[in-house]
Every structure is written in structure tokens, then in C-alpha cells.
Amino acid sequence: MGELVVRLDDPRDADIRVLLGEHLAFARRHSPPEDVHALDIAELTAGNVSFFSIRQGGELVGVGAVKQLDEGHAELKSMHTAEAARQRGVGRTMLDHLLGVARSRGCERVSLETGSMAAFAPARALYASAGFERCEPFAQYRPSPNSVFMTLELDGPARPDAVDTACG
User: Looking at residue 143, which CATH number applies to its domain?
Assistant: First the structure.
């Protein structure tokens, strides 16, 4: 199959747009419109967002992003694994990379929003296994029975391979 390779990437690339479309379709299938918080392409190319792809043997198998909320707080966005690549460590590899990026920026905390429905249970389990804990809504979010908010206090140095030199 080949090694999983994470890299800074352009969400406007054709194969990435397809996977982001699947991500959005999944969110819309399982969440009411007011609780679909996926970023669009323009938001994923904003200066405070670093977008990454993960490939295996050259094939796109996942995506994820880090959105800088303030100097010490980042948010995970647009994490999605292609359906055919699930249960192969793609999500964990991306999560570890994104946390390394946040650490390299000096972030003290990383937060996220995900769905409360059963379809999002694997995502919640992944985040919990990495130490994320439920929290109150943060940034622009409002309380919703359809959303679960989670946060992780960061400690320790960044992994050298996760340094993101293209972000600010």
C-alpha cells in the first residue's frame, strides 16, 4: 500500500475538491444545515488556515486543517478520511500531524467541533483517544444538541516532521 505521507496542500486541487465535497455531503447528511460548520474552499485558503492532504501511494486518502484562532489556541477543521481508506490509520496520522503543527506554533490548546450523532462516533472516539475532552462552545460556536465541542491542552515539544513553516 505504501507509507502515509502528509503535506501542506492546496484545497483547490481537483482530487482534494472531490474529497472535500464528500466531507461536506457527509456533514449535510447527518447534521441540520445550521450545524454544518465545514469550511468552504475560500475559508480553507485563508491566511490563518493551514490545509494538509494525506496520501498513500500517491492516492489522496485524507485531509485536515489547522485554523489559528489566536496566539495560543488553534482549531482542527475539515478532517476527513476517504471511505475506502478508513480503519487504516489515516485519521490518527492526520490528527498527530495537526497536533504537531499546533505545537510548533506555540499553541497551548487545540479545540474542535464535531457532530453529536451516531455517524460521528468514530471521530469522537479518535479525538478522545488522543486526550481531547468535551468542553463548552468556543470561538464563534453556540450551544447545540447537534454539536460536540472538544479541547486538548497541549504540552511537550513539537515533532520535528510536523513543523509547518508556511503558516503564521
Answer: 3.40.630.30
